[in-house]
Design goal:
The chain has helices spanning 7-12, 21-36, 46-74, 78-93, 96-106, 113-130, 135-162, 169-194, 206-220. By secondary structure, the chain is mainly α. It has one domain (44-220): Up-down Bundle (Heme Oxygenase, Chain A), CATH 1.20.910. The structure holds fe (ii) ion (FE2). Residues 91, 96, 174 line the site of fe (ii) ion.
Length: 225
């Protein structure tokens, strides 16, 4: 059985401009595909449930702000700078990494070396991509990331509750604020695309593909070597 969570995202996708519509469609499809592959928590052992939280934390805690900063450094338009700056301000001011750490601790799912190793190959791939500082492509990847995170929160919270956790600040905040963040990133993207000569092509989705591989590793882990 798979978790179906299609309904809220489509509703958030209505108010955007036409230039980014095909990109939003692509991202929405990638998110739906990821959700279709989520394992049913009932069929996971407690250890496997904890491992998903731990791998998620291993990736998000130290990289989200770093990648959003790369987006800030990469974009050219005033509008995109303002939108991404406000996103970063919220992350830093409200200490989102600390919020996530508390969530992982309460779920007894603090990342270990094993969790870091499990995500390391695909994490490296995303870092290499981000290092190219390609504005529109990073913004597209981050819009995909925010959209995924927002919809992943009920699943993540369910896993944590199964470990006896009642700490929900991280999932509460990200289940709500990332809806707006995703839309704002599409506005930032619109501003960036307006400065570009070439129309959107498949190359714009390179970061989405790399991040998708990383998110699959968070959810499913990797074979032990
Ligand atoms: Fe956050």
């Amino acid at each position: 059985m798979t978790i179906e969570a299609r309904q809220p995202y489509a509703a958030t996708m209505t108010s955007t401009l036409s230039r980014t519509a095909p990109i939003q469609e692509h991202i929405d499809g990638a998110i739906q595909e990821l959700f279709a592959s989520l394992p049913n928590p009932d069929r996971l052992s407690a250890e496997e449930q904890c491992a998903i939280i731990a791998r998620y934390t291993a990736v998000l805690e130290g990289n989200f702000i770093y990648w959003m900063t790369a987006a800030y450094l990469s974009v050219a338009s005033t509008e995109a700078h303002a939108i991404i700056r406000s996103n970063l301000l919220e992350e830093v001011r409200d200490n989102h990494p600390g919020m996530l750490r508390r969530f992982a601790v309460a779920a007894r799912s603090i990342p270990t070396d094993r969790d870091a190793l499990a995500v390391s190959r695909h994490l490296h791939g995303v870092r290499e991509f981000v290092g190219h500082l390609s504005g529109a492509r990073i913004v597209i990847m981050m819009a995909f990331f925010e959209g995924f995170i927002q919809r992943f929160m009920p699943y993540l919270e369910d896993l944590a509750k199964r470990q006896g956790s009642s700490e929900t600040q991280y999932t509460d905040v990200h289940g709500v604020c990332d809806i707006a963040h995703t839309q704002e990133l599409f506005h930032a993207l619109e501003a960036e695309l307006a400065l570009m000569d070439t129309p959107p092509t498949a190359a714009l989705f390179e970061g989405v593909g790399l991040l998708r591989a990383l998110l699959l590793t968070i959810v499913h882990g990797v074979e032990e070597r």
